[in-house]
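User: For a benchmark we're assembling, each entry needs the component sequences followed by a predicted structure for the full assembly. Here are entry 17's components. Please fill in the structure.
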Amino acid sequence: MLKINEIYASIQGESSHTGLPCVFIRLTGCNLRCTWCDTAYAFHAGKDLTMEETMQKVETFALPLVEITGGEPLMQEDVYPLMDALLQKDYQVMLETGGALSIEKVPEKVIKILDIKCPGSGEDKKNHFENLELLAPHDEVKFVLLDRADYEWSRDLLQKYNLPASVQVLFSPVYDKLDLKDLSKWILEDRLPVRLQTQLHKVIWSKKAIGV
Ligand code: SF4
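Assistant: Structure for entry 17:
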């Protein structure tokens, strides 16, 4: 049984898959409380669905790309059979995780978008850095930046873990808090080999829109 906040089809707004039609499965619950969280509505609200009900709902959208997100999807043990079932049906599966729990049991074929929590989130002490050793070349590491201090912290961390060499690295500003132009300027000044991203879904719809 899975506790699910919402299942819907939208345009993928983040990662290097940005712009592609995608089904989102948002699992209820999160072990973190980031200061700038935009999905607090998923902390508690949700409906219990069986694996069959979940798969049936996903199938109604007839899209090849599925992202499992939250909250923190790895908090629910049944997320693992869900990933297996989706892979068996030949979906391309993405998993967005907050980075505080181990990704050890996530199937290799799943594209993991691993957050590294910066100090501005208030949750940087919870980062499970051992995860960085478990990433495959198709996985991505995402830093959400609140300010210049977060940028410098992230830049230092890239160097420490030699990050862009092994995986795609995404730098994303907290929407409406850090100016995209400022972040772009800093990345260019430092010639950082990271991919700037914004949250495209918020540009298309609105920053408060849910289920699109
Ligand atoms: S990990 Fe994601 S859902 Fe959880 S508090 Fe942080 S931003 Fe919100």
